[in-house]
Design a protein that fits this description.
- It catalyses: ATP + protein L-histidine = ADP + protein N-phospho-L-histidine.
- This is histidine kinase.
- Pfam families: HATPase_c (PF02518), HisKA (PF00512), Response_reg (PF00072).
- The structure is a single chain.
- The chain has ten helices and twelve strands.
- Helices cover 50% and strands 19% of the residues.
- Strand 9 and strand 10 form a beta hairpin.
- The longest helix is centred in the middle third of the chain and has 63 residues.
- It folds into three domains: 108 residues, Rossmann fold, CATH 3.40.50; 70 residues; 144 residues, Histidine kinase-like ATPase, C-terminal domain (Heat Shock Protein 90).
- It is elongated, with a radius of gyration of 34 Å.
- The strands form three sheets. Strands 2-1-3-4-5 form a five-stranded parallel β-sheet, with helices on both faces. A five-stranded mixed β-sheet has the order 7-9-10-12-11.
Length: 368
Amino acid sequence: MTLAETSDSNRKTLLVVDDAPENLDIMTSLLKDRFQVKAAINGRIALKIASQQRPDLILLDVMMPDMDGYEVCRQLKADPATAAIPVIFLTALDSVDDETRGLTLGAVDYIAKPLNPAILMARINTHLALDEVRRELAAQNQALVEAARMREDVERIMHHDLKAPLTNIISIPSVLRNAGELNDRQQDFLQKLEDTGWRMLNMINMSLVLLKIEYGTYQPDWQEASLLQLLKQVMDEQQQAFHRKQLRFVLTQSDAAADQLIRTEPLLLQNLFANLLKNACEAAPAGSELLIELSDTPQGLQLVFENPGEVPEAIRPRFFEKFVTAGKKQGTGLGTYSAQLMAGVLLIDLALDTSVAGRTRLLLTFRK
């Protein structure tokens, strides 16, 4: 089906402009079965119809008294309301200069009279299709502009409206400690306040990092680091964070893997580990054992996080998608999504392995 062969309600509208009534009758008869056709006997009427009813395409005769087709086209392109309407010139003038003049004014095509109906219909369909693509691209471009503006607003809020007051809050415990003697309970309260402030600041910083990763603008700060050392730090932090569940972390590593240095961004890698370990700790039953295995494979270093409990079969294909979660009262569905983003930046292949019944395994392979 062509663009022209649509239902009446969806048919494109053409405006035909010609000073000869017989030409208008012929064009209307030729086009009316496929398009909604509006006719104008002169340039002034054409401009009025175009501004009030906005046709999808204009077929415009050049040689007309009072206002010729070139002037009509110039005024159409000068008006923002009609500037984007495709204009095809229909004329007996077939010199290169005439055609160049029409195209320079903004026409999309130039068809010489006498008209061949098949060629005319093909040109109309082509330019209607091109105009539809142009509109779609314009809409997509506008959406990208709005998304970029929203991202800038979010970054501004995080940088200035949140980070500045939070930094002040973090500094308060030190000021109070220096102001005088505090009892153990007060010291403990201030320490919790300070730790919470630093955690919130880290969350804001990581949110900014993830925004940049999503938009493809993040550049890692590559360094040589010990994977095992970074991992052990995160394990200690997560075990402390989930101490009430009394989880046991069991780490095994091959001799070849234990001593290797990797090229990575240490802080980003630790956030990746923290997301995956937090996810495993939340899913694991209280008092259970989490297995962590580091080995050297032909593909590169491989790290496996394994916990009791299965990922529901329904969400396995979408496990790393945004906002996908199941079985967690306060789950956001962002942990594994952000882990996948960070893994991609750090050149790590992250995969879900559900081959072991009753267990969930996450495999990280560090590309060589």
